Amino acid sequence: MLRIEKLTKTFGRTVALDGMDMHVEQGALYGFVGPNGAGKTTTIKTVIGLLAADSGRVLVSGIDVAEEPGRVMARIGYMPDTFGIYDNLKVAEYMDFFAACYGISGLKARERCRMLLEQVGLDDKADFYVEGLSRGMKQRLCLARALIHNPPLLIMDEPTAGLDPRTRYEFKEILKELCRQGKTVLISSHILPELAEICTDIGIIDQGKMVYEGSMDEILSQINVSSPLLISVAGDRRPALEILRSHPEVDTITIRDEDIMVGFRGDKRDEITLLQRLVDAEVQVYGFSRERGNLESVFMQITDHDSGEVVLRHEN
Amino acid sequence: MKINPIYRQESRGSARSFRLPLIVLGFNCVLAVAALLNMYSVIAQVRLTAELQYSSFLEMYVFVASVEFVLLLLLIPAITAGSISGERERQTLDLMLTTRVGAADIVFGKLLSGLSTVFLLIVSSFPILGLVFIYGGVTVADILLLLLCYVVTALFVGSMGIFCSAVSARSTVATVSAYCLTAAVCAGSVAVFVLSDSFTEMTSAPGSGGASWVGLLLLCNPAATFQAVLDGQLGPGYGLAAAFPWLETVLAGHGRLWWISGIVVQLLLSAAMLAGAVRSVAPRSSKKRGQRRLPPQGRNNFR
Ligand SMILES: Nc1ncnc2c1ncn2[C@@H]1O[C@H](COP(=O)(O)OP(=O)(O)O)[C@@H](O)[C@H]1O
Ligand SMILES: [Mg+2]
């Protein structure tokens, strides 16, 4: 759906994008994460043709933005990091204006606006002035506006910034619904955990480069791998240590009271067989768990500039 | 009929705000006061000397027309300069540019809505301008020509305002630069002319007319065009130019040709500035500048 290849962009002496790559599959809910100033907004503006890249390519459904920006824009619904709202217009008029900007008019425009306002839950606010809406409502209005030309790809720049948890939840529900309708959604944020529940794919950008890209399942399993396995053993733990030491997937073993903390590289399957072996060796296991990985810490690790190399593995 | 969505949006906004009626009211109040004061002074003169000078009625026409002209010069930058930079400040310019609306649509929509406000002002001043018909001496054709002059001035100064708005990020900067540009065109060209005139008089024999090329600079001055139109109607000696005898020498002798070429020059300059505005509004696509246009079905089919 969206492919970015080796995108670079400099503003004077600031390098905003430095060989960015990105791949968003059709139907994905793609979380585009990076710390402030990483280049998310710059990437997004380049994709919709508001900024010209210095080099590299952006392809949306196989169409190059630099060559046919109009056709690309027609396929993208764009929600910037600011609302972009006219205070002296009513909600319905605001929608009508942008419908007209897309050449949609008359009955068709009215029906489409009504349908979208209903979808974002603003149908009872159509006659309200935009300035009177709450932040969350403005956000939803902007979403409705971005969808007015029924684009297959929706790009949102930090849409959840400044929303309260309840509004944020509702917003996510709307996004999930959009995905069910077959839209591809790219959503940027500087908070990874926020996207974790809804996204199918994740791309982590740092200093203008894509440092990690993969499906949510992949990153979650990597996180789990990176946190230690906690085995609680009653009685004699020597047989247990014996087995652990000989296990190829075990990196580190730390003993804390009755618990053994094991740096374990294996996945869920390996965990099962390990537990099986311990039980078979008549080790009295009464606890066997992995500490739930923390997305925050992974994000910190990935975007940690001081450690130089970017690592996903748990440091042993 | 095709309606530019930007224009429609603007007119909806201005129909709702108090600004437009206030401007119309203020504009016509100033004009009416100017006209009535002038009439009063003519009548007072008559009472005093018991002698009625026909030229004082013409003076009233010149006076009211000049006041209206100056008011337009003062208002047009304010009306147009905030248009595009205001969209930028509201962050809606980017949004519009991602739709099927192009930079040209935005610039012309804004120009159109600015001009329609100015036209409203001009039209609303008809009754006051019509006072001059009480005494005669001015024909309908004269008034029509005056209107043409106003319209061209509105277009020219409006284009300057739009241009300033398109290149600046903030509305305040745009407004200040629009006023500076207007002042430079209206007063600056005269100043250059005066300087060069006195310079030529110092260096060459008097009456050699060596500075005539600088006089051409006045072609892009809407005030000079306005003066030339008045001169053409009433003969020299009226209005602003009465204060600048040398200006008469430039304007005189060319007759109709002067203001016609002035209008042509100003229309050309307007077109150039609008093109510049479109260029700076359009997103920079480095590879194919100016070719960021739309699917074949035509993006101009606004209805
Ligand atoms: N118009 C601009 N002029 C100069 N520098 C810019 C401009 N836009 C962005 N930058 C710089 O580019 C870098 C990336 O910015 P941005 O894409 O906005 O980051 P993010 O959206 O991830 O927070 C930042 O260092 C920022 O200072
Ligand atoms: Mg940003």
Overall description:
The complex is a heterodimer of chains A (316) and B (303). Chain A is α/β, with parallel strands linked by helices. Chain A has helices at 40-47, 69-74, 91-101, 106-119, 135-146, 165-180, 192-196, 216-226, 238-246, 268-280, 295-302, and strands at residues 2-11, 14-24, 29-33, 55-60, 63-64, 76-79, 153-156, 184-189, 201-206, 209-215, 229-234, 250-256, 259-264, 284-290. Chain A has a 6-stranded mixed β-sheet with strand order 6-7-8-3-9-10, sandwiched between helices. In chain A, strands 2-1-4-5 form a 4-stranded antiparallel β-sheet. In chain A, strands 12-13-11-14 form a 4-stranded antiparallel β-sheet, sandwiched between helices. The longest helix of chain A is centred in the middle third of the chain and has 16 residues, at 165-180. The model of chain A is unreliable at 306-316 (pLDDT under 50). With 303 residues, chain B is an all-alpha fold. Chain B has one domain (16-281). Chain B contains 13 helices and no strands. In chain B, helix 3 (54-81) packs antiparallel against helix 11 (222-234), helix 8 packs antiparallel against helix 11 (222-234) and helix 11 packs antiparallel against helix 13. The longest helix of chain B is centred in the middle third of the chain and has 33 residues, at 171-203. Chain A binds chain B through residues 45, 48-54, 66-67, 69-71, 73-74, 76, 78, 80, 82-86, 88-89, 93, 97-98, 100-103, 105-106, 145, 149, and chain B through 5, 8-9, 12-13, 16-17, 90-92, 94-101, 283-288, 292-295, 299, 301-303. The complex binds adenosine-5'-diphosphate (ADP) and magnesium ion (MG). Residues 40-41, 81, 157-158 of chain A line the site of magnesium ion (MG).
Helix count, DSSP H or I runs of 4 or more residues of chain B: 13
* Distance between the first and last residues' Cα of chain A: 39 Å
The structural class of chain B is mainly alpha
Shape of chain B: globular
The CATH architecture of the largest domain in chain A comes to 3-Layer(aba) Sandwich
Q: What compounds are bound to the protein? A: adenosine-5'-diphosphate, magnesium ion
pLDDT average of chain A, as an integer? 85
Tell me the quaternary state.
heterodimer
Biggest interface in this structure?
A: A-B, 36 and 32 residues
The tally of strands of chain B reads 0
Number of domains of chain B: 1
Order of secondary-structure elements of chain B: HHHHHHHHHHHHH
